[in-house]
Amino acid sequence: MSAADITPDIDVKVSLPEDGIIRVEGAQLFGESDAALCRQFVERAFLAPEIERVVIAPGAAPAVELQFDATQRGHRQVLEHVAELLVARDWSGEAAAARSEALDLPPAATARDQHGVVRYHRYARRVTGWRVTCERVGMIKLENPVLYRKAALCEEIERELMGVLGVDRYETSPRNGRAKIEYDPRQLGPAQIIEILDGALANAEHPNGLDKPELELALCTVSIPLAAFAQFATPALLPVSAALFAYTSIPSFRRAYDVLTKERRLGVDVLDSIVVLGCLASLQVFPGAILAWCLAFGRFLVRRTEDSSKKLLLSAFGKQPRYVWLVKDGMEIRMPFDRLEKGDTVVVHTGEVVPVDGIIVDGLAMIDQHALTGESTPAEKGVGDRVFASTVMVAGKMHVAVEKSGSETATAQIAKILNDTAGYKLASQHRGEKLADKAVIPTLAVGALAWATIGSQGAVAALNSDLGTGIRMAAPLGMLSTLALCAQKDILVKDGRALDLLREIDTVLFDKTGTLTRERPEIGRTIGVNGFNSLQILRFAAGAERRFHHPIALAILQKAREQGVRLPPNDAAQYKVGYGITVRIDGRRVRVGSRRFMEMEGIRLTREIEAALGEAHREGHTMVIVAVGNRLGGALELRASLRPEVRDIVQGLRERGIKHIAIISGDHEAPTRKLAEELGMDRYFAQVLPADKADYVERLQREGRKVCFVGDGINDAITLKKANVSISLRGATSIATDTAHVVFMEQGLRKLCELQDIARDLERNVRNSWIMILVPNIACILGVFTLGFGIGASVVTNNVAALGALANGLWPMRKVAQLEAERRHLFELQLRQSGFLLVDGSKPAPVEVNGSADLGPVEARASAGEPASYRVVAAAD
C-alpha cells in the first residue's frame, strides 16, 4: 500500500471539536464507509495505538472522528503520529513495527447503527463494532447499535453462541443492542468471543428496516393513568381513553377469533373479549385498562420465561469446537471450525473430541460413543469406519474425511430437536389451559344469571370474575420456571407433560446394565498360573493398558493403584489394537485381551482358567486374559460395579410412595436375582432380549400400573417410548430419536428422587395458583349478587388474584437464581485455583517473553515414518 492509495488529490478538512477528538471531513474519502479508500484510512488510523475508537459519520459533510484519551496524549502529538502513518511511503522503523501490528477491520455492516453511523472500537488486538461496557473474568457485557430493533440478528448471534465450547450463558437484547456472555476463560477469551460475534454479524443477513417496536405492554401502561384521569377527573377524555383501551385489547379479540373459528371451542379469550366489550359499552375504561395491562403483562412474563427456559435447555447440547486441525500437504493446520467443507481431512488425537461426522481414511482408534449411542464400551474404529461429532477418542490417532460439519452433524441435529420440542407442547397440552377452558361455560352461565337478575353491569362484573384467565398463564409459567430449575440441576425435561405424569407413577422399572451398574466395571478375582502370581498379572495388565481410557482399562488401572502396583514402562511402538493389546514390558511380549484373542494368538488356556471362565459366565461376569511370552500368565475377573447411590435411591423412592420397583436385564437368572434381593426389589426379569423389554413394560401396564422406565443405551429406545414416563442417563440415543421424556445429564441416578420432588412441587405450585385465583373470584361473584359489586371491583379482584398467581408461578425461579449464584461462586473458586482469578477478582498479569506478551503454547509433532507436522496454538487475546 502506498501513500498514493489514500492521498492523491483528496482534499480533507481537519478540526478539533473537543478534547480527545480529531475530526477529518472529506466527501470523496468518507462518502462510502465500505469503500476501499475509507477502509484503508481507518486501518492506518488504528495503527496508532493511542486511537481508541473511530466514528464514520455520513451526511452532507461525511467525516471520520478519531477518538483518544486526551489525558494521556495531546491533539498535536496524536495528529502528527496519525498523519505520519497515513502518508508513510517507506515502511521502516516505527512505521514498519506499527504495520506489523495491523488490525483486521470487520465490515462496516457489523458496526453501523440505524442512522448509518459506523463506530469502530479497539479491544486488545482487534478492531470491532462492539463496545465493552463491563468485563470481569468469565463475564463480558457488550453493546452494538447494529442490534437495535433487529431480533433476527440477535437470534443469529445466539445461534452461533449456542454451539461454542466454553460459552455457559448468553443473552442478547434488540431493545437496547446489548449482549451479556458468561464463559469459561480456560477454554476461550473475551477477544475470541468478540471475534465470534463479529463473524456472526458478518455472515448474517441484515434486515433492511427496523423491527416493529413491542409497544403492547408500554401502551397498556400508558392507558391506565389516562383512563383514571378521564373517568374520575376529565370526562371529555373518555373517547380518547376508550379508543386506546380498545386498541390495546386487539390481541384478546384476535385470540378469541382464532379460538372460535380455528379451534372451534369456547376459550378464556372469548370471556376476556366479552368483558372488554362490556367495559367499552358502559365506558368503564379504567377497570378495562387494568384488565388489558394485566393480560399484556402475563403474556410478556410467559414469553420471557419460555425464552430463558429454552436457552437453558439448549445450552446443554450442541457445543462445537471453535477450531479443528486440518491436514494439508502433510501439515496440521489450525483452522476455524466453520470453514470446514465436505471432503476436507481433519486429524484427531488421543483425548480429543471428534469435531465432525465423517469416514476414517487413515489410522486406528478406540472411540467412546456413549454420549451419542449409549454404548458403554469404546468402539474400535479403522479405515472405512464412520465416526460422529462429539464422541471422544480414548486411544490412537486418525484422519477423518469430513462428511458433515456444523449444523449438519448429529449433535447439532439433537440441538435442533430440543429447539423444536422445548416449549411448544406446553401451551396446548398443559392442564392449566384445560382447567381454564373448563371454567368458561360455568362463568357464562353465572353471567347470564346476573344479566337476568341484576342487569348488564352485574353481568359484565360476573363474567370478568372468570376462573380461567389467571390459571391459563400461571400454570404454564410454573411449568416453564420448573423446566428452568430442572435444567439448572442438569435434568433435561424434553416434554413438560412428564412432570405431570410423574405424580401418577407407582412403578419404577430399572434396566440393570449401565443404569444400576456403572459404565466402568470393577476387578474381582485375579488369577495367576504357570508360575505367575496375581500381583504380577495385575502389573502386566495395568502396564499394557496404561495409555488407554476405556472403562476396562480404567478398572484395571484403578485396581493397580489400590494395590500399590508401580506401572512398568512399555514400548509404545509395539502397540497393536485389535481384539486385544500386544506390548513389550520388561523385554517380554505381553498380550492382554479376550479368550478369542488368545485363541487367535495360539495361547492355550489352562484348566484353572477354563473353570474360572465358566464360573464367571454363570455369574454374569467376564474375564480379561493375560499372556506373557508364549504362554498363559493369568486372568482378571471383571464384575459389574453397582452405582453407590442405588440403595439410597431405592429407599428414597419407597419414601415417596413408589409401591413397585423392579429390575429388567439381559443377564443370567442368578446374578439378576442376587442383585434384586440385595436391593430389596419387588420383582426382577432376567435373560430378556433387548427387543422384548417393551413387552415387559406393557405387561406391567396391563396389571394397572403406571410405569417409569429408567434405562440407558441404544437398545432401550422402544422401551423408553412405551413407558408412561421414560428417563435416560447422560445423552443416550433416546435424545436423537426423541423417545425419552427426561434425560439426566450427570452420570448416575442421584437426580431421580430429586426429580420426583420437583414434580410434586410443580403440582403444589399449580394447586396454590388455582386456590389464589379461585377464592377471590368466587367471593367477588358472591359480592356481585349480594353486595352490589360492579365492574371496577370485579376487575381489581380478578387481576390482583391473577398477578398473585403469576408471582407464584415464578417462584421456582428463585431456586434457579440461588443455584446460579452457587454455580458462579464455585466457578470463581475453580478459576482462582487454576490461576485465572486472583483473590481480589482481578486477572493475573500476562507472561512477558522477549518483551512481548506470550501468545500461547507452541507444539511441534514429528514421529518416525511420518512427515514433520507443526501445530501452533495462539490465544486470541
How far apart are the termini? 27 Å
Mean pLDDT: 81
- Put simply, the count of helices is 32
Strand order of the largest sheet: 18-30-29-28-19-26-27
Q: What is the 3D form? A: flat
Number of strands: 34
Provide the structure class.
Answer: alpha+beta
Radius of gyration over all CA atoms, rounded: 34 Å
Give a topology summary.
Elements: E1 13-15, E2 21-25, H1 27-30, H2 36-45, E3 51-57, E4 63-68, H3 75-87, H4 93-100, E5 118-123, E6 126-128, E7 131-136, E8 139-143, H5 151-162, E9 167-173, E10 178-183, H6 190-203, H7 216-232, H8 238-248, H9 250-261, H10 268-281, H11 285-314, E11 323-328, E12 331-336, E13 345-349, E14 357-368, H12 370-373, E15 379-381, E16 386-387, E17 392-404, H13 410-421, H14 424-429, H15 431-438, H16 440-453, H17 456-464, H18 469-488, E18 491-493, H19 497-501, E19 507-511, H20 512-516, E20 522-528, H21 534-545, H22 551-562, E21 570-571, E22 580-585, E23 588-593, H23 595-601, H24 607-619, E24 622-628, E25 631-639, H25 646-655, E26 660-664, H26 669-679, E27 683-685, H27 693-702, E28 707-711, H28 717-722, E29 725-729, H29 733-737, E30 742-744, H30 751-786, H31 791-809, H32 812-833, E31 848-849, E32 852-853, E33 858-861, E34 869-872
Helix pairs in contact: 5-6, 7-8, 7-11, 8-11, 9-10, 10-11, 10-17, 11-18, 11-31, 15-18, 16-17, 17-31, 18-30, 18-31, 18-32, 21-22, 30-31
What does this structure look like?
With 877 residues, this protein is an alpha+beta fold. 45% of the residues lie in helices and 20% in strands. The protein is built from 32 helices and 34 strands. It has a 7-stranded mixed β-sheet with strand order 18-30-29-28-19-26-27, with helices on both faces. The chain has a 6-stranded antiparallel β-sheet with strand order 1-2-4-3-5-6. Strands 20-25-24-23-22-21 form a 6-stranded antiparallel β-sheet, with helices on both faces. Helix 30 (751-786) packs antiparallel against helix 31. It is flat and about 110 Å long. The model is unreliable at 1-7, 417-429, 732-738, 838-842 and 844-877 (pLDDT under 50).
